[in-house]
Amino acid sequence: MDFANLSAQLNAGAILPEGIVIITLLVTLVWDLIVGRSSTKVTPYVAIVGLLIATGTLFLQWDTTEPISFLGSFNGDAISLIFRGIIAISAAVTIPISIRYVEQSGTSLAEFITILLTATVGGMFLSGADELVMIFVSLETLSISSYLLTGYMKRDPRSNEAALKYLLIGAASSAIFLYGISLLYGLSGGETRLSAITASIISNGLDESLGLVIALVFVIAGIAFKIAAVPFHQWTPDVYEGSPTPVVAFLSVGSKAAGFALAVRLLVSAFPLVSDQWRFVLTALAILSMVLGNVVALAQTSMKRLLAYSSIAQAGFLMIGLIVGTDAGYSSMVFYLMIYLFMNLGGFACVILFTLRTGTDEINEYSGLYQKDPLLTLALSICLLSLGGIPPLAGFFGKIYLFWAGWQAGAYGLVLIGLITSVISIYYYIRVVKTMVVKEPQEMSEAVANYPEIQWNLTGMRPLQVSIVVALVFTSLAGVLANPLFNLATGSVSKTPMLQATEPMTPVVSQAPEQLPMPTVESVDL
Amino acid sequence: MLSLLIWVPIIGAGVIAFAPGEVSGARARLGAIGVSGFLIGLSALLLFQFDLGNPEMQFQEYIPWIESLGLNYQLGVDGLSLLLLSLNSLLILISILSSKIDIERPRLFFSLILLIAGGVAGAFVAQNLLLFFLFYELELIPFYLLVSIWGGSRRSYAATKFLIYTAVSGACILLAFLGLVWFSEASTFAYDTLMGQMLPLGLQFVLLALMLVGFGIKIPLVPFHTWLPDTYVEASTPVAILLGGILAKLGTYGIFRFGLGLFPEAWSNLSPYLAIWAAISIMYGAMAAIAQKDIKRMVAYSSIGHMGYILLGGAALTSLSVIGSISQMVAHGLILAVLFNLVGVVEAKVGTRELDVLNGLMNPLRGLPATSSLLVMGAMASAGIPGLVGFIAEFMIFQGSYERFPIQTLLAVVGTGLTAVYFVILLNRTCFGKLDNSTSYYPEVTFGEQVPALILATLIIFLGLQPTWLVRWIEPTGTAMVAAVSTESAAQVATLSVPVVE
Amino acid sequence: MELQYFLLLAAALFCIGIYGLVTSRNAIRVLMSIELLLNAVTLNLMAFSNYLDPMVIRGQVFTVFVITIAAAESAVGLAIVLSIYRNRDTVDMEQFNLLKW
Q: What ipTM score was computed for the predicted complex, to two decimals?
């Protein structure tokens, strides 16, 4: 069979962006093999360009009418496009902030980028995966590369330890997730496409079975691990503290976005029968995440741990949009993720810069930083305040939209807790700002007092500076000029047939391509 | 026009903060003075172009913004906001003038102050609830930094306390707004659409209560006032002027605009209790002020009492009392600013604020004669001595409220008496008496340091003698507000012959 | 043979795996417990595939993927354990306390 015909039949164009990322990955790897150590001058930029091109192709696919590809394994609908875009951009921002960090640690940059791109590919496939095997494979691609990234500083025992913890907890949770998936496969009588599962379950007469709830619980455990929702969050602070900071930046945004993409697709299309139950469970998780994340963050002394708990709390906020399950809910979640991408990565970029200069990430060591490095102080303050939801920064608009959507859908309790906890969160974000800005010159910490001269011409410093500035500009202006992002977010939801099926009892079976008849399955009672 | 009032200071703040190269403190100060002078000119222009006969919103501006959130850039002024807007412009200038010449980190300081100027102006003119909230919350960080960087010895504690209280207040207000919009099934936060809401009375009570708590923290009213003494006292003079003169007015403005304006029925039902609350605030403020040993603290507590008058006037809901309340907002802004300014001067020159230590500042040779005579004037104005602006406002409030709430009003009058008591104590201890012979000459107060107080004193006396200049702008709006309440509650009673009370 | 027996066996295996996961102190044993969990899943999938989906045998395909990925996962896991052993001379979980739990 000739290739063009095959690819047309499979609708392979839908994964063109992933294809571009994979090609970039190979180019990086091969170039590094050929050129050797000096490849670091080129590879990161090749990778960034590749990722941006991939994002561009995602944009071109916005109006696609034929999202299903690979016999129903992959669904490139609008919401997946958005999530894939978020993941690709988060990787594209992570690379410039990691160049200097990796260089300084004396490890190979090209390998780092290769693994990062692998993780990105995994996350992007996960956002569009519409079939159980596909979900599992892409989830593991993402996870295994994340474990490797976490342990990338292989001579640093803290990095080792973080990697081991992440791996053990991650592998266990994905095994549990997989167990849930296998039950789902059984309940549906041997169906693996998400869009067909519900119909099969109903036709098997198992729509009220206990097995479905058990499968749901296991699946939620896996998802909650990925998005670091309490009580599946224990790995987060340790991993965030121990791993290389650029990796943490990617994990907190890219990997989390992928987790949310998985959650939306799996829960909405495979578990509409138990939607009350999963909404209830997620409500509990969201409340716990918001409360615990924000409260525990108050007590942190390490910047990275603080950001870890803050990211747990942010996951709680994001879950509000998922739980309410209205159009506004989903689009507010997408909108918040887009903003979260920049403010969180901006925050991490600043932490990286500070760590590079001083070698520490204790909050106390930031004392009096404004005198030595105004740009860093400003950028970090803006990003943190935006995370705390202070107007007129982008985070404020994101939160308002989430709360607005939640309130509209009647989730008063959630919104109330969200409001209270974001008031709490302001306190710890501002504590950092205060340390940097308010302290008198004589209260300056030792690290800041010995702050080295700024040398922007070192390898990798310029990209770091550029990404800090980009994040800063985006975080300060994205809220005020939010209309395009809003349209993107609402468009992605309204163009996605899966999320438009308001009636949970009518699953979207019609999505399956007609020209590829699947063999009929005779159903056997359990 | 209104946008200029918001954006010029914000852009000015940006320029002062980020202008490349070395910018000396004097240059930054000059820039800030220039911007605030421009603001004053603009406000004066607004005052003169304002159509006095028209109680509606004027100088409206409208730009669609984020439709899906119901957020639009919608501005307008009426009599209530106009004067507060002008007060804001004036006090920004006063505050900049009363800052120390050699203040530390001048660029940050002046840009934060200008940021506040823009934010407050935005809050006063916003005609969209969410836009108001945005500007309202915009103050939080600049004030926090202003208190915690340039404050007194316990500034860190005070700033944190301020932050927590204000953040809670913001959350309450946001909740009330969200609830209002959602329950009235509006798709927008625009003020004029929400005006006509017809919510059940019980719900209105809940939302109004949330708002009262939210704005009550900001004003502050007893029992939400505990942040005030600490913050006012720890803040440096210019910041204290802004806090007491402008920020507190955001709270009263919010209560009048959103509490009274959006929930007229609930408001008129609650008004007896509000009046009692006001009376308690007044009495408490006055009593607490008497007990103070620190003159700045005393002035701070006096502010609590004066805020009570405003609430009383609002609760009474006669057109005279409402006009009086709005005048009191302006009058209190002027008087508090002059008092804080003078206290600041005294502290700078004498080196203490303790009542027990201060003595005989009136001494023409070795004391601070000009400052202390201005202090006498300020205290008289605050205590409501006729001929000064404070008297006019308070008199209108009492006159307007007495017919509805005689007992509460009488209590408030007693409170005024107590005000006089503590100001007499203050003046007696600080200005009069014999200056200790051993005390050396106090440093001379330069003309520059005297200017802000002189400007304010002139205004206080002028408006005290010519109250029409104050009242003429307020009158149509005040009357219209009261009229709106009475017609709307009448309509409500007519439609719901059985009042819905849960 | 009934389907239930297979499922019960898988569930038992899964529980043993979880037990091992929680109680083991040795990192290698934890990895082995995870393998046990994955084997339980594999068993489940095979059983379902045999009884419910004998025509398309998606479950068996799935199983192949699970086995492959499990291998990759343990490879990475062992590599990490190896590097931690080089740095710390131990694989005892209780000793890994640089990061507070």
A: 0.96
